[in-house]
Amino acid sequence: MEFLAPFSKYYYFVYWFVVMLMTVSRFNTINKYQRYAVIERAFNYQPLLLFSLFFIVFYGLRPVYSGYFGDTGVYANTYWLLKNYGVFNMQGAVDIKSDWLFYTIQKFCAEIMDVHLWLMLMTCCYLIPMLWGCWQIDKKHGALLMLFCVGAFEFYSFGTNGVRNGIACSIMILAVASLCKKKIVLAAIFCLLSIGFHKSALLSAAALFFSFYVRKPKYMFIAWLGAIGVSLAIGGQIDAMLSSMSYDERLAGNLQSNEADGMILEHRFRWDFLLYSSMPILLAWYTIFKRKLYNNTYLLLLGTYMYANSFWVLAIRAIFSNRIAYLSWFIYPIVLAYPLMNFDVFKEKHSKKTALILLAHFGFTTILWLLGK
């Protein structure tokens, strides 16, 4: 609500503090486990359910014009125009064919509710599929998978800034969960819904179904490492080629743009992004090739992540390449956490090392916040 606008600068701290309490509490619990107890124990969903309810209400009803919530103000302006004039912008129309489901819901809601209730509904669409998907992927450890998700650095941005992309990625988690159970038709339906919210999710959907049929780990690593080599060698030409054949105008703009907020920016290879992206991949290499531990669910999760991330690596020099990276990063926390919950990855002190990885995962989010990233 707008009367809370003076407190908008504290919203991220509130999110961080609540997730920090949950993370430290779970860290202390897991750190006391012996050997592989973290694999054997089921985790309580109640804290994550309460957090989801809190996030939906508190952040769904956030002040829309405070300037602290990214594109929230843009969404609110569009909603106001729809509610008062029945148009998406002052020119009278936008191309709603790309994100048809999002715009259809927005137009319908504008006729029956105010912008704050609509944003709360969108926050529901963001949190509920994510929680449901984690539960479907691993019922026993789904709460811990969800904790990894809410502790990821992109979680808050997806929920308050990139609303369409966040919802699309959450629904894509449901598609992944369905395909893990070989429910191909249901997975395809969720993919279509995801693409209906944000057309760029087509890349994630393609990676998902490709990994369903090409599930050998060596191909995943060949694709990812090969993408790095190609990007280093001819990255500029790759950007130009991909932008010319892009299926999404926004994606093409992200590849081609040299400007941000009026500043001329430099195209460069993002080693920092690549290092971050490599963490679950390094864990996968150790788990699969050194420890010989995997199952079909893990291979599908890993393949979806690595194939989508490979596409981003090809376009890594783009100014806004992080927007493309999100199409693989949305499943990053699950790919990182799943093997720790299901396989005896570490021969010694597996539970304690799992607890440390959980703490380090959220610690990275904390560092980025402190650095103002």
TrEMBL record:
<feature type="transmembrane region" description="Helical">
    <location>
        <begin position="115"/>
        <end position="135"/>
    </location>
</feature>
<dbReference type="InterPro" id="IPR049458">
    <property type="entry name" value="EpsG-like"/>
</dbReference>
<keyword id="KW-0812">Transmembrane</keyword>
<dbReference type="Pfam" id="PF14897">
    <property type="entry name" value="EpsG"/>
</dbReference>
<feature type="transmembrane region" description="Helical">
    <location>
        <begin position="142"/>
        <end position="158"/>
    </location>
</feature>
<feature type="transmembrane region" description="Helical">
    <location>
        <begin position="219"/>
        <end position="238"/>
    </location>
</feature>
<feature type="transmembrane region" description="Helical">
    <location>
        <begin position="326"/>
        <end position="343"/>
    </location>
</feature>
<feature type="transmembrane region" description="Helical">
    <location>
        <begin position="355"/>
        <end position="372"/>
    </location>
</feature>
<feature type="transmembrane region" description="Helical">
    <location>
        <begin position="12"/>
        <end position="30"/>
    </location>
</feature>
<feature type="transmembrane region" description="Helical">
    <location>
        <begin position="298"/>
        <end position="320"/>
    </location>
</feature>
<feature type="transmembrane region" description="Helical">
    <location>
        <begin position="42"/>
        <end position="61"/>
    </location>
</feature>
<keyword id="KW-0472">Membrane</keyword>
<feature type="transmembrane region" description="Helical">
    <location>
        <begin position="184"/>
        <end position="212"/>
    </location>
</feature>
<protein>
    <submittedName>
        <fullName>EpsG family protein</fullName>
    </submittedName>
</protein>
<feature type="transmembrane region" description="Helical">
    <location>
        <begin position="273"/>
        <end position="289"/>
    </location>
</feature>
<keyword id="KW-1133">Transmembrane helix</keyword>
